[in-house]
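Sample A.
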Amino acid sequence: MSREVDPTAARRGGTLVLFALILVGALGIFRWRLVHLGGKFREARETAAAAVTTARVKAALMSSSRVSAFDIEIDTEGAVVTLKGQVPANEIRGLAAAIAEDVASPMEVRNELAVVPGVRPDSELEELRRRLGELKIETSVLAALAKHPGHGKKDIRVGVTGERDTLRGSVDDREDKLGAKRLALATEGVGAVVSDLVVHESKELVDGRDGDERLARRLESALFASEVFDVENMEIGVDAGRVTLAGMVRSRAEALLAERIVRDVDDVREVTNALEVAADPVMSDAGRR
């Protein structure tokens, strides 16, 4: 006895099978795209990390006066940094590798630099190294001026050419101008200072109404220039040329030295030394004996 096949049921079954096949195919494609995108993401992340490492090694090599003038190619792939190019001596070859290893650690550094005794420094790289050195000196001078209580907020600009430092801008008085020049000369790498600072005294200073304030700044500069005192812990009061020193110093000797420095400044008529010694165990022991 034969059974009749319901055409409607057959069509429904075929539709379900087709739908299942399409769903399986779509899931397969979606999974493939996820894997593909994940690989692309990892590749982009590794490329970015390699670029950062290359830049760090390049910057470190450029900061070396003995290596920076030579054209050294840096290739970072995976966990390996490769140095390529030509240098004139084994000493420079080894120095370049040591710098790269210090920066790229724990990555491996392959030194493929060739030693060619007659190779000359790259003129463009040499000029770049020179300019970087000048910018470093400019930054150091500006930092020294910023730390000084009398110059930190002044309009002073710094330009360096070779070992010559040029100061431009305006200051309140001649003492400020001399103090800025002394600070610049004391900076490492500065051989000479040209001071184009303009003394721009305010009307109050010209009229003499702020003479005490101006004298206080001169005293502060004189104490700071001695490189002995932390002037931030000291207070300088001036009243018609009569000076009062207050605050903390490290020893009685410093208190006496501060008084002597202040007395040697022009326009000081009288000095009251109220400086206190913060801590002096040696003197305390002597007092007890």
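Sample B, a different protein:
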Amino acid sequence: MPTLSTAALPSTTGLSASRQVGVVNGAAPTGGTFAVKDWAVDTSNGSIWTCTVAGSPGTWVNSRQNATPQSLWLPTNAKAETYPRAGGRITEALSALSTGRLSVYAITLEAGVTISSITFFSNSTAAGTPTNQWFCLLDTSLNVLRTTNDDTTTAWAANTSKTLTLSSSYTPVNRIAAYVGINVTATTPPNLTGYSEGSNIVFSTTPAVVANSSTGLTTPASLGSTAATLTAPSAGFAWAYIS
């Protein structure tokens, strides 16, 4: 197996030995036992997978992960955001959510990055008499990957964040397009913070980046269930992040 030897390199380079373990195609190694600093070339895009925690198969990080300039300005502990707040987008009050209706927003999940929570931000309207409040992760086929705990009647004031913990953490094997979803069942649902300068036809062009889905919701959706067909959004693109 080819290795990178640093025996002949000057000590001032700060390099140490590593090991190429082969090539992969579109995902980190899924079988075998690996050591820290093992690496593999991904033939699908030319990136490098590096083992950061030894194990079977261990934890792997891709060289393309969080490579955008905006990612340097993510909130503390955030792994990704629905759109880059550092990109100069206007933040404003969106139309209020509809009670018991799932609204979804596009987000990118990086391979090997574990997600444990989702955060949304209210704007000028607080949640009035809420009974169910939960967030979720969905793939682009609208399969529910994870849901959060139900925050039921907990207050959600205006102009505040709400962070909810997933029922169990989620670590994608591949870099995937996904959605973060929100449902608030309340007498008065809150409005969210985001931007709305795009038209509905732009947002909902396939694959939609903002959309509405299932209605009549109360308790969190079941893992593996499929949300209803997407419909045109009634509000703009909410800013949210995953941690």
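Observation for Sample B: The longest strand covers residues 176-188.
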